[in-house]
Amino acid sequence: MKAVLGLSLKARLSLLYAVLLILSVVIVGFCSYWNVWQLFINNKSAHLRARAKPIIAHWLTDYGLVSVEHPASKLTSETAAILARDLTSKQSSAIILDNTGKIIAKGKRLPEEPDAPPPELGQFKKAMSGENEVTYFANLNGTSLLVMLIPLRPRPGSPKVFGVVQLSTGLREINRMLFRHGAMLMAIVALILILGTVAGYWLIGMSLRDLQGLVKTCNAISSGDFSKRVSVNTTQGEIGRLATSFNQMISQLESIFASQQRFVANAAHELLTPLTGLKGCVEVLLRGAQDDPATTSRLLKAMYREVNRLIRLCEQLLGISRLEGSSHVHRQDVVVSEFFADFMPQARLLANDDRLVLRQGPYARISVDPDLLKQVLFNLLSNALRHSPDDTPIEITWRLLPDFVEIQVRDHGEGMDATTLSHVFEPFYKGRSHTCSYKRSGLGLSLAKSMINAHGGTIKVESAPGKGTIVSFTIPLSSN
Amino acid sequence: MMERDTKIKILLIEDDPVITEFLRTGLKYEGYDVVSFDNGIQGLDSLNRNEFDLVILDIVLPDIDGFEICRRIRAMGQEVPILMLTVKKEISDRVKGLDSGADDYLTKPFSFEELVARIRALLRRSGRIGQGKMLNAAGVVLDPSTRHVRIHGRNIELTPTEFGLLELFMRHPYRVFTRETLLNRVLGYDFDGGTNVIDVHISHLRKKLGDRPARLIRTVYGVGYSFQPGDDAT
After folding, report:
1. Which residue, of A154, A179, A204, is where some domain finishes?
2. At the N or C end, where does chain B have fewer CB atoms within 10 A?
3. Could you tell me if A135 and A265 lie in one domain?
4. Does A210 map to a domain?
C-alpha cells in the first residue's frame, strides 16, 4: 500500500484505471461465458425433448397404452425395448425405468452409441411424482453427460405415471464449442485490457498535463518570479478552475507583496534620516569634536534624541505589523460613556482642559479592545491639536448606526486639500505642513486605520482647507 | 586668485535638528563658518542679505522644497555653489536636483568625510578657494593635488600616512590634535590599534622634515600634537 501511495498521481490513476478495467472485463466475460453455456444446455435439452415427444406419443398408441386402467401392467421389457431403441441415437441414449425405478430396457445396441449412466434415485422420484422437466448432470467414466427424465403417462396431462424414460447425451460437443467461445473471449479481453490501459494512460497524461504546467509555474513562483501565470487551454473543468483560482491567488499575492515591499522601502527610507544624524554625530566626534567636552555633550544629547526617535518609529512599525493579524485584538464589551469617563482625564493631560469637548451620545455597548481604541483616539487628538489653533475646541461625539457606533473627532483648524486628503492613510505620508516634519513619522493615521480595520470598522476623514477636519470611525456594537 | 582673509561662509538649510547639529559642529571644526535655518523662507532671506560661499540644502523642508529653493536662488542670479542633501536614491530625483540648479548632491546617510571633500571640490571649482592651492608654511610647501612636498626647495618622499598628517597639520596650524583625533582622521575610524601608532608616524615625519626636535610639530604633553610654523620663522 505504501509503495502505491509513493507513486505519482499519474501512475496511481493509471493503476486504478487498469484494475477497474480488468475487473469489469473479467465480470463481463464470465457472465457472457455463463450465459452462452446456459443457452447451449437449454437448447440441447429442448432439442432432445422435442425429438422424444412424438416418438413416445407414437409408441403409446402403437402399444395400446392409452386409456388403459393399469398402464404399468402393460409396460413390459419388450415394449420398453422398442421405445428405448427408437430414442437412442449416436448423440443420445435412452433407458426405460418402471414405476419402481428398475431398468427394464436399454437402448444401446451399437458400440458408437454412448453409454447411459445409471439412474439416480432422487431424480427418478421427482419424475415419478409428475415433474416433467427433470434435467441434471451426471458423470460416467470421466465424460460429463446431460440427463433428462421424461415421465410416461397414458396421455398428456394424465396424473398417472407408470414409468420414466431417461435420456442422456454427452456434453463434449457443447464443451468444445464453449472452449472455443472462451478462448475468443479471452483474446478479446486481453486486447481490450492492453488497448484500454494504453489509452487510459495517455488520456490521464493528457488531463494531467495542465497540472504539470501548474507545478512548473508553482516552482517558478516559489523561486520569486511573481509575474508567472498558469496558462490553460480551457477555463472549464476542475483543472481549468483550479488554474483560474490559482492565477487569481497569485495576482492577489503579487499585489500584497508589492505593497509590502513599498512599505518596507518607505520604512527603510524613514529610518535613514535619523541614522544620517547618528552617523554624522559619531563621525564629527571621531574627527576631533570629542576633544571638547561641551561639544561632546551637545552631540551626545542630539544622538540620544535621535535614538529615541528611531525607537519610537520602530515601535509604530511593529504596531502596524502586529495588527495585520487580528490575534492581538483583545475585545471586550465596553459601554461607550464609561469608556470616555475613563479616557477624558488622560486626554486632558495632552491639551488645555477647555480645548477638549466631549458631547455625550446615546447609550451603546461596543465590542472593542479599549487599549487600541485609546491609541486611536490619542493619535487623532494629537493630529487635531497639531493642526488647529490653541483657542479652538476639539470635539468628540458618538452616535448609533445599524450594528455600529460612529465616533467622531472634529477640529476647527487649518484642514487640508483634496490631494493631501487622498493620501492621508498612506504610511509615511506627512503632507505639507508648517510644523516640523521631523517629529512625525507619518504613521499615525495608517496605524489608526489598521486598528479600526482589525475591529471590523471603517475610518474616514472629511476636510477642506480652512474648514477644519472631521475624522469618523465605526466600531461594531457588542453582540449580546 | 583672490585670497580671502575671512573664513569660508556656508549657509545650511535643513529642518532635522540632529543633522543640523552635527553639520554645524563638524563644519565649524573644519574651519568653516556655518549659518543654519530650518526652513526655506528664512534661508532665502538670509542669502539675499548676506554673501555665502556655499549652500547646503535639504530637499524635504516644511515650507518650500529644496528644488524650489534652488530655482529661486538661481533666479536671483546667485552663482553660489549648491550642495543638495537627499534621502531619495532615484536617478530622476538627482536629475531634478541638478536641473533645478544644484551643483552636487549627497544621499543620506552620507559620510561626513565625503561631505567635506565635496565641499572642498565645489569651492575649488567655483574659484572660492585657489585651484590646487599650495599649502606653504615655515619653508614647507605641500601640494594637495600632486601630493608633492618640498622643504626649502628640496623634494622629500612621504608615506600616505605621513602626508595625511602633514596636510592636516598645515591646514590647521596651531590647532592641538589629540592622538585619537589624528588616528581617526588619518588612518580612518575603523583603525583598531593603539594611539602610539601616531607617535611612530610623527617621529618618522619629523625625521624626514629635518625638524629640530619638537619645533615645527610640537608635542603638547598629555594632549597630543600641534603644528607651530610661526616659531620656526626665526
Report:
1. A179
2. C
3. no
4. no
How far, CA to CA in Å, does B180 sit from each of A308, B112, B226? 28, 17, 13
The contact set of B with A (CB < 8 A) is 15-19, 21-23, 25-26, 29, 38, 60, 62-63, 87-88, 108-113, 176-178, 180-181, 184-185, 189
Mean pLDDT of A311-322: 79
Q: Do A61 and A160 belong to one domain?
A: yes
Assess whether pLDDT exceeds 50 at residue A132.
yes
> Residue A326 pLDDT more than 70?
no
Q: Residue B17 and residue A291: Cβ atoms within 8 Å? A: no
What ipTM did this prediction achieve? Answer: 0.73
pLDDT single digits (tens) B116-162: 889 988 888 877 665 456 777 777 888 877 788 888 878 888 888 88
CATH code, domain carrying A374:
3.30.565.10
Task: Please judge whether B184 and A438 are an interchain contact, meaning their C-beta atoms are less than 8 angstroms apart.
Answer: no
Sheet holding A356-359, edge to edge: A356-359, A394-401, A404-411, A469-476, A459-463
Contact check, Cβ <8 Å, B21/A298? yes
Distance set, CA A457 to CA A361, A373, A450, B78, B140 (Å): 18, 12, 10, 55, 77
Angle between helices B160-171 and B196-209 (to 10 degrees): 80
Instruction: State how far residue B129 is from chain A, nearest Cα, in angstroms.
Output: 23
Q: Is A281 on the interface with B (CB under 8 A)?
A: yes
Q: Over the stretch A277-292, which tens digit does the pLDDT of each residue have?
A: 889 888 888 888 777 8
Q: Which amino acid is at A472?
A: S
Q: Is A276 close to B184, i.e. CB distance below 8 A? A: no
Q: How far apart are CA A296 and CA B28, in angstroms?
A: 14
Radius of gyration of chain B (CA): 20
Task: Tell which A residues from 417 to 476 touch B, by Cβ distance under 8 Å.
Answer: 432-438
Domain end among A294, A323, A352:
A323
**Number of domains chain A contains:** 3
Q: Is residue A187 part of a domain?
A: no
**A134/A55 same-domain check:** yes
Phi first, then psi, for residue B143 (nearest 5°) are: -105, 105
Question: Which residue intervals of A166-292 are DSSP H helices?
Answer: 172-222, 237-286
Q: What is the pLDDT of residues A108-118, one digit of tens each?
A: 888 888 888 88
| A283: containing domain | 237-323
The residue in chain A having the minimum alpha-carbon distance to the alpha carbon of residue B190 is A286
Q: Are A129 and A109 in contact (CB under 8 A)?
A: no
Same domain? For A101 and A11 the reply is yes
Q: Inspect the interface and report whether the beta carbons of B181 and A437 lie closer than 8 Å.
A: no
**Domain B135-233 bears CATH identifier 1.10.10.10:** yes
Q: Rounded to a whole number, what is the distance in Å from the CA of A427 to chain B's nearest CA?
A: 17
Shortest distance, CA B226 to any CA of chain A (angstroms): 13
Residue A293 sits in the same domain as residue A331: no
Determine the Cα–Cα distance for residues A357 and A103; give it in Å rounded to an integer: 127
In sequence order, the 6+-apart residues with CB closer than 8 A to the CB of A436 are B15, B38, B62
What integer pLDDT is reported at residue B232 of this predicted model? Answer: 45
Contact between A273 and B17 using a beta-carbon 8 Å cutoff: no
Q: Distance, in angstroms, between B154 CA and closest chain A CA?
A: 32
CATH architecture group of domain B9-125: 3-Layer(aba) Sandwich (3.40)
The per-residue pLDDT for range A458-470, each reduced to its tens digit, is 999 988 888 889 9
* Chain B hits for A437, Cβ within 8 Å: 15, 60, 62
A410 part of a folded domain:
yes
For residue A230, is it within any domain?
A: no
